[in-house]
Amino acid sequence: MGSQHGELVRGDAHTRELRDWFRVLPAAFIRSALPASLRERGLLTGLLQRTTGTWADWMSRRRPDFAQQRTRGFYRAAAMPKRAQSVLFAMDVLQNAINGITTLQTPIPRAVPALAACSSVAAWGASTRDGRLLHARNFDFPAPELWNRAPAVVFCTPRTGQRYGFVTTWSGDVACVTAFNESGLTITPHTRFHRDFGWHGAGIVDICHALVRGATTLDEACALARRLRSASTWGILVSSAAERSAMILELTSRRCARVDPGREPWLCNTNHYLTDDLAGREAPPAALFPHHSRARLARLQQVMHHHDEAAPADVDDLLDLLGDHRQAETGKPVVAGSILNSPFTIQSVVVDPERQRVCLSTGAAPVTHGARVEIPWVWADQPGAFEIPVTSDEQEDTSWRRAVRAHARGCQANLQEPDIRAAEPWMEAALAAAPDDPSLQFINGAIALRRGDFGHAADLFSGAAAVSQAAIRRQRAAHWARACARAARGQRTGIAGRLQRQHNNATIDYITVDLALP
Predict the structure, then answer these.
(1) What are the structural domains, with CATH classification, of the chain?
(2) pLDDT tens string 129-181
């Protein structure tokens, strides 16, 4: 199957662009977290690239045989060099690098962009319209223009194992985002950060390929994952339409723990460990990260309780949930913060195994507000392809949507240029479209603070404190407002100076999530 997929994308410019992006991703991501004085040093950048490339090559040489064969077939047919397959381990390498940096307790993680914001839910029984199982997920990733330019659903009929499919981008031979098989299993892995990581286990690409090819039940999937052992740190939501149930496999290099649902007919997954002893050794890239993940989990659970008790969900309800902007603490909508929608959401999908279809949103990131399409499951004897229509049409065009789009464009611009000033015009446009939004007031206050405009920063933080409903956000905005007001009066000797230095190297995404910091 790998060679057939490779033939379809042979010579495609998107294939080369995607390969090149993943090749530099780990080093570029770490570099973006460095102080500006270090970012521009070519020697350090080259060292990062060589180091992360060596780690990826090491993992690539130790892959299971079935995975080696598939990938070699894909790259040979796509006319790409053999060594290019090491890019498949970009996420494992990146996570392990962040795990290592955090374990060493260096100051770098404070500026690591908080891009790990994926959210998934599997629902069945009383929580869905006719009791059938539905599996929904958001995939947030720092390649919005490249990835969702050409969304794809790949259907595979391997010589051994069962038929399966996965949602990806056109030239991405990776079943490690959203995958499903003919037995009704759906698999959606999420980033975790933990102190127990290594380089000798399987990468997430190979783990998910093995599960979706070889497992027919939840128990089989759990046993397979434990046999493979993971090199990096992950939380995989696995659901079974036949069993109408789900589980989360929490992986480190030392352990695979299983989390089963409670009494509720649903199970939700974000980016923190739920198993107590694993949670004790988590290595979040910033103090605020666990709160951000837990707030999204709480919002998923709130909405699913509603569907369970009052209004059972269907596909459109779950796609709406993936684009949700409401805060778990208050139920009030905000453009940014600890919410399910993200400026880097490049895949928003619901897998409906019992009706054998995949429903996904398309368009510019965040795709959660884009046009929706339905793809039927089709396993054909002959390889072929059909194009998923991509349209920029949104469900509605309001000032709120314009604010969301401008905020997303600002975050994406900031990702390309790790200086929050690159995002300033977009964030100003977002605030103009939604002037009462506390998250945008807070972000624009941070930008004003970055350029030393303490008076304007104080006004914006004061506005955020007045509008914010959540106590944590209100208190933090008020704290920043007082500090900036003192600095504006010439008393720049305390917290305002420290806050300015703290955000000299921060990204907008980091500052946005910082709204959740207690």
Answers:
(1) 2-111 (no CATH), 119-376 (3.60.60.10), 399-516 (1.25.40)
(2) 999 999 999 998 877 677 877 888 989 888 888 999 999 887 777 878 999 99
- One-letter identity of residue 317: D
pLDDT at 261: 97
Q: Which helix (H) or strand (E) covers residue 352, if one does?
A: strand 345-352
Residue 11: how many CB atoms within 10 A of its CB? Answer: 8
Averaged over 124-132, what is the pLDDT?
96
**Nearest residue to 208 (alpha-carbon basis) of 168, 259, 150:** 168
Provide φ and ψ at 516, rounded to 5°.
-90, -5
User: What confidence tens digit (pLDDT) does each residue in 331-347 have?
Assistant: 889 998 889 998 889 89
Give the C-alpha separation, 329 to 326, whole Å.
9
- Overall pTM surpassing 0.85 (yes/no): yes
Strand partners for 136: 121, 350
Q: Find the DSSP H helices in 261-364.
A: 276-279, 289-309, 315-322
Q: How would you list the strands of the sheet with 345-352, edge to edge? A: 266-269, 119-123, 134-140, 345-352, 357-361, 372-376
The verdict on whether omega for the bond into residue 107 sits within 30 degrees of 0, i.e. cis, is no
Neighbour tally for 160: CB within 10 Å: 7
Neighbours of 199 (CB within 10 A): 16
Q: Tell me the C-alpha distance between 492 and 494, whole Å.
A: 6
User: Would you say 255 and 249 are in contact if contact means Cβ atoms under 8 Å apart?
Assistant: no
Give the CA angle between residues 374, 115, 349 to the nearest 5°.
Answer: 10
DSSP β-ladder status, 345-352 and 266-269: unpaired
Tokens of 136: 């929904």
- Listed in order, strand segments (DSSP E) in 69-211 are 119-123, 134-140, 151-156, 164-169, 178-181, 185-191
**R_g of the chain computed on alpha carbons:** 22
DSSP three-state, residue 458: helix
Q: What is the spatial distance between Cα 182 and Cα 274, in angstroms, rounded to a whole number?
A: 29
* Count of other CB atoms within 10 angstroms of residue 383: 14
On the question of pLDDT at 404 being above 70, the answer is yes
Task: Report the alpha-carbon distance of residue 366 to residue 319 in Å, rounded.
Answer: 12
Q: Which residues contact 485 (CB under 8 A, 6 or more apart)?
A: 454, 455, 458, 462
